[in-house]
Amino acid sequence: MNITITGNLGSGKSSVAKILKEQGYEYSSTGNIFRQLAMEQGLSVEEFNKQVNEAASRGDHSVDKMIDDTTTRIGEERDRVVFDSRLAWHFAPKSFKVFIITDLDEASRRVFNDSLRANSESYETQAACRKALINRQKLETVRYKEIYDIDYYDMSNYNLVIESTNAAPEELVREILDKMAAYQNGDFDKMMELNPSSVKVPEKGAAGEAIADGDIEVTEKGGIFTLCAGKNKLDAAVAQGAKFVAVRVASSEPGGEDSFMNFANMNR
Predict the structure, then answer these.
(1) I need a surface site. Which of 110, 168, 178, 248 has the fewest CB within 10 A?
(2) Which CATH architecture best describes the domain 3-185?
(3) In angstroms, what CA-CA distances link 259 with 4, 44, 99, 128, 213?
(4) Which stretches of the chain drop beneath a pLDDT of 50?
């Protein structure tokens, strides 16, 4: 089965995809397809990119369509491909669709540290990087809606939504493969997993105190997940040092800087 990997900027999705490549999956990315198209045109990547940008400014998205069509063809013709692509989930619908989420502060820390390396987009401060990530993700929401009429940040598009804030890429890969096997076995259609330490727990006696029993349920607002049920299971997961725990999103609403994320339909 093919796997499509996407996620927040700074989520580590490319690191996950490359580990899967090392484990025997064929690797496909938008960048690779773009380079292939440039070569077929007899152009350098820089020359081809200039042509594409000029065409896009005139409303011509024909190259986007070529990339999308190539993704669809690969998804239909090949097996055990990992797609490192923002929209491959849409164009390879028979894949196991994974979206990796990350706390905004952690994402900006990762991207800022990467920007300090040579040949990377640079930011003066982590705060500037954080602001740039928010703006870019909001622009993506508008662009994908205008061109494809899809809501990229609607988490119900994906089979597995998994958090990477407090998890290493190798841990994510193991969990993704484990959950893909369960998905293929028919155990679930959509699942969301958070890092247990990321779930905010209301203080005892406070308004909104979480119910102790039952499965883990959370409310989401602006990228913040607050426990509303299943405290016993969450406490056990934390005590065991678990990296991931399955949660049900009881409610989701916009708020704060992450208001472009939509978890409302995850459990429908």
Answers:
(1) 178
(2) 3-Layer(aba) Sandwich (3.40)
(3) 24, 39, 17, 19, 30
(4) none
